[in-house]
Amino acid sequence: MSGPRWFPDAMPTPAVDRETLPWWQAAAEHRLLLQRCDTCGCVRLPPGPLCPTCRSFDQSWQEASGRGTVYTYTIVHRAYVRGLPVPYVVAVVALEEGPKLTSNVVDVEPAAVQIGMAVEVVWEDMGPAVSVPRFRPRR
Ligand code: ZN
To answer: Which of 126, 137, 132 is nearest to 26 (CA)?
Structure first.
């Protein structure tokens, strides 16, 4: 897969572990997953071994809609890796299923980003098996 790019190859690759590997494998297929507790039904992100609400280890994956709103954000003006175009937006996106995901808002002038802005996921393929969810204003 190769789609639009917003960030350079010099960006650090995600840290993957046993708990997050299925999430990243789905991301490589452009599917945004949430973890759902089989005992109490709460939905969570990031993935973890046990439910923070009821401490159950029973969980399954569900696919998120990819829609959300900007919960909060900041505009970064200093490049910390070579080739990083600034300014760019780091945002906490409140997904419509409830969990929040820290990501970037792209395809918009940073100054136009607002808290509460409706956004949707868009995938950036950072390598053959690594895709990262970003968000753009909802169309
Ligand atoms: Zn639970």
So the answer is: 132
